[in-house]
Amino acid sequence: MTLNCAIIDDEPLAADLLASYVQKTPFLHLTGTYNSAIAAMKILRDNPVDLIFLDIQMPELSGVEFAKILPRNTKIIFTTAFSQYAVEGYKVNALDYLLKPVSYDDFLSASNKAMEWFNTVRKQETYAQDRFMFVKSDYKLQRVALDDILYIEGLKDYVRIYLENGDKIMSLMNMKKLEDYLPRPEFLRTHRSYIVHMPKASVIDRFRIVFGNVYIPISDSYKEEVQAYFERHTLV
After folding, report:
1. Residue 155 and residue 43: Cα distance in Å, rounded?
2. Radius of gyration, alpha carbons of the chain
3. What CA–CA distances, in Å, run from 185 to 16, 121, 228?
4. 3-class secondary structure for the chain?
5. pLDDT digit string (tens) for 47-103?
6. What are the backbone dihedrals phi and psi of residue 44, each rounded to the nearest 5 degrees, phi first?
7. Contact indicator for 3, 29 with CB cutoff of 8 Å
8. Would you say the pTM of this structure is higher than 0.85?
9. Distance of CA 197 to CAs 142, 148, 164, 174, 234, Å?
């Protein structure tokens, strides 16, 4: 997979350095370099890219302001000479933050993070479209239909997948891998030990999800996203 990317920086030397880094990174393809967000906006509106290396401090329209109007699927890696802007970067869900002068090691690390993000998203899209996955269980691959899953329980190095028909499938896998690959928000982590197939949640009691006589907790770490899901589907 190749990521189409653009560079937006009002410093020619900084932009040229990033362009040289892109050219020697096999999975990146540079579509354009722009000296301002205003100039980039006219082109990228009709020709969106996957990834933008975006300077924060620019005239007319700052990188942070520009990031707020980009399509959701366009990801940002901020570049700046001022470390105090790091917090601003994460407020707009930037994938990473590079401090100038940018070394190739740091550039490559940030670019790999972007590639991992896009790989994960595309796998999620595949699972959401195909509606099944294969998991290793008892030395064989077993097909699991996403629509049959009620919830998943993490047990150290294993997971147990609970199906609507009452079957349970054990697989040597960690919860993080499943959480990353299953489509969201259809599947949400509610606790370090549980992932829930949210459309199957029919009863919520004292902010616990109930499946028969099983009460699945919702921990503080995941409460905000789970609560937002319920609120979107609640009539009051």
Report:
1. 50
2. 21
3. 40, 12, 10
4. CCEEEEEECCCHHHHHHHHHHHHCCCCEEEEEEECCHHHHHHHHCCCCCCEEEEECCCCCCCHHHHHCCCCCCCEEEEEECCHHHHHHHHHCCCCEEEECCCCHHHHHHHHHHHHHHHHHHHHHHHHHHHCEEEEEECCEEEEEEHHHEEEEEEECCEEEEEECCCCEEEEECCHHHHHHHCCCCCEEEEECCEEEEHHHCCEEECCEEEECCEEECCCHHHHHHHHHHHHHCCCC
5. 899 999 999 888 888 888 888 888 878 999 999 877 655 445 445 568 898 988 999
6. -75, -15
7. yes
8. no
9. 19, 9, 11, 17, 17
Each residue's pLDDT tens digit, 201-235 = 989 988 899 998 999 999 999 998 999 899 888 88
Task: Give burial (CB, 10 Å; 0-12/13-18/19+) of 100.
Answer: middle
